[in-house]
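ok so I'm stuck.
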Amino acid sequence: MRRPVVLVLSVRDYLHRPLIDLVRLRHGADTQIISMRAWRELDRWFLLRLLFFELPFRIGRIYTPSDLGGRLVRVIVDLAALLGIEVYVAPAHNHPYHRDQPIPLSRRYVDLHALQVVGGFARSSRIVINDPSMRAFFRELGYADRRLVDVPDWIARLFRRPLPTRYRFVFFTEVMQDIDPHTCDRNLQRIVHLLECGALPSLVVKFHPREPQEKIQEYRRAFAPWPQVSFIDLEAPSFDVINESDVIFASFSTALLEALWLGKQIVILDNPLYLNTMMRFYLDNPQRYHVYDVDDMALARFLEAPPTADRRLA
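replied:
not stuck anymore, here's the structure
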């Protein structure tokens, strides 16, 4: 009988410890865990032992975040599926609206964008569900209920930190390859307008880790007239920034969902692209606000008022 060893696969450091905590939350504190995260630093002998000994004979489950990166992860997950090992995917970003469907081999190992389709990792994979909105999203995408594993509020339980508030308002930028340049420009103009009308007495800008340097300079020039604007290191983990913030501004960044999961207020900038993502299933959340729903004065009142659990913002 296979011993209940769990393999934790994570590419990003900030997801590594929470994934291990999630395993212990579901399977007990004494669960044996093997973890891998820094692919380019892997010892090749350890990798060979993993593929030819650990996976076939010891590992009973695999936990991995949904934003898998690299072909090596795909190889490990595919091999696990062939061996009948349970694969649990923990959604960690704002998923695009892709239905659960097989992905041809030509895409699985050539087109890395195919990795964003959760159902393509392994047809037998299970999704760790955080809340009813997330469940509704994956059900509409075609995932059977037997593949949806409820762990209520697991994201907040593992990522929320009792940190003092350092930032009242934080603007998360988007990268050009994710949205068109015109939308980026409109988002920037909207934030500048809010500064001009006095709605933002302070503002912190959090650049995307893949933000091009020329775009960073453009943001810095645009915000130069306002001394109340400051900038956060683009490598700072978004969950850490959100834990220390009150209100998050973004267009369709994963930061919006992360903020909702952590109980923060969000302001969705004018961009219809988020309707094609998981965010659409959170639109009735009382903590959200659309900048185009009402006028600037109403937005200013929203930003000044303390959040309440039963208030509708749209």
